[in-house]
Design brief:
A hairpin with a 4-residue loop joins strand 5 and strand 6. The protein contains two helices and twelve strands, in the order H-H-E-E-E-E-E-E-E-E-E-E-E-E. The longest helix has about 45 residues. The protein is about 20% helix and about 25% strand. It has two domains: about 90 residues, no CATH class; about 140 residues, Immunoglobulin-like (Sandwich), CATH 2.60.40. It is rod-shaped and about 160 Å long. Strands 5, 6, 7, 10, 11 and 12 form a six-stranded antiparallel β-sheet that branches. It has a four-stranded antiparallel β-sheet with strand order 3-4-8-9, with no helix packed on it. Strands 1-2 form a two-stranded antiparallel ribbon. The protein is of the alpha+beta class and about 300 residues long. The relative contact order is 0.10. Helix 1 packs across helix 2.
């Protein structure tokens, strides 16, 4: 056999010869022994490759598990307990190494601090609830040519106007304006409705100055034209304290205290103002003027 085979080839050939295999290439071929040895080397290399291919994934998973464990220890080393005392979890994959579960960091034990002393809060003042109906003296109008519902001329007068306003969120039904004496009640207007936020200005009292003896008077207003109703008697109030009141069918009554004043000089002058202060105390020996009396007429209600 020409040529000298290398040591691995000789070793492989010797191993094959000891195993009873003929390392020569079959047939009458030149260099049959080297060719057979090369074939055995290729077969051996394929066997080693297959073994490495099969065992590579477990080694890869093991290395990844070791890197993950090392990284976990670096990140959570201050708060980790003994790894041996921790439960373990196995990552998926053949031959994977169990990795201990990390515990949740315990919350630091904070020392309880005493509650700060808070001074008692001053209770807020109760909000004043506004009535659904508001009535105020709004204006004073000089009427030179007033007429009633039939067109008849009325005497020129100064008219004190009352403004009635609906402050509620619902329609106020069948409102009426009244001028209340201590012992009498005079109806001033016919019924009317007010939608939320609406107001109506109505003459509450008239004063006739162009006369030898000036006087104050009340008329009844027609509910359709809001003019003085024809054929209605005029009421002549005396100086004193009164109430301008508004009643309705579905809201509480609203009232405004007013004073009707008359000057003592000549010519007489009548004035209607809001009474914001109580009456002065009566002098000794004089009977006080009050709103209550044995013959007082009951004030109208929403049912009247």
């Amino acid at each position: 056999m020409p040529g000298r085979p290398s040591s691995p080839c000789c070793l492989l050939s010797g191993s094959a010869w000891l195993a009873g295999a003929d390392p020569t290439y079959p047939g009458d071929t030149a260099y049959g022994a080297p060719i057979g040895t090369g074939l055995f080397i290729v077969i051996a290399w394929l066997a080693v490759f297959l073994v490495q291919l099969v065992t590579a994934p477990p080694r890869l998973y093991a290395r990844l598990d070791a890197e993950l464990l090392a990284l976990t220890r670096r990140l959570f080393a201050p708060s980790m307990r003994s790894i041996a005392a921790l439960p373990v979890i196995a990552l998926p994959g053949p031959g994977s190494t169990p990795v201990p579960l990390l515990p949740v960091d315990p919350q630091p034990d904070l020392q309880s601090e005493p509650d700060p002393v808070v001074p008692p809060l001053t209770p807020a003042a109760a909000r004043t609830v506004l009535p659904p109906i508001d009535v105020r003296l709004h204006d004073q109008v000089h009427e030179t040519t007033p007429v009633d519902t039939t067109g008849d001329r009325l005497p020129a007068s100064r008219t004190y106007t009352a403004r009635i306003t609906n402050r509620s969120a619902k329609t106020v039904r069948r409102c009426q304006l009244f001028f209340c004496y201590p012992v009498h009640i005079k109806v001033v207007s016919g019924p009317f409705d007010l939608v939320p936020g609406e107001h109506r200005d109505l003459p509450a009292l008239r004063v006739v100055d162009e006369a030898d003896d000036p006087y104050a008077l009340l008329y009844f207003l027609d509910a359709e034209t809001w003019r003085v109703a024809a054929g209605q008697a005029a009421w002549l109030p005396e100086p004193g304290r009164f109430k301008v009141k508004v009643l309705s069918a579905n809201a509480p009554a609203a009232a405004l205290d007013v004073k009707l004043l008359r000057s003592a000089g000549t010519p007489l002058a009548w004035t209607l103002v809001e009474a914001t202060e109580p009456d002065k105390a009566p002098k000794a020996g004089r009977k006080p003027l009050t709103w209550a009396a044995s013959d007082v007429v009951a004030e109208p209600t929403t049912g009247n």
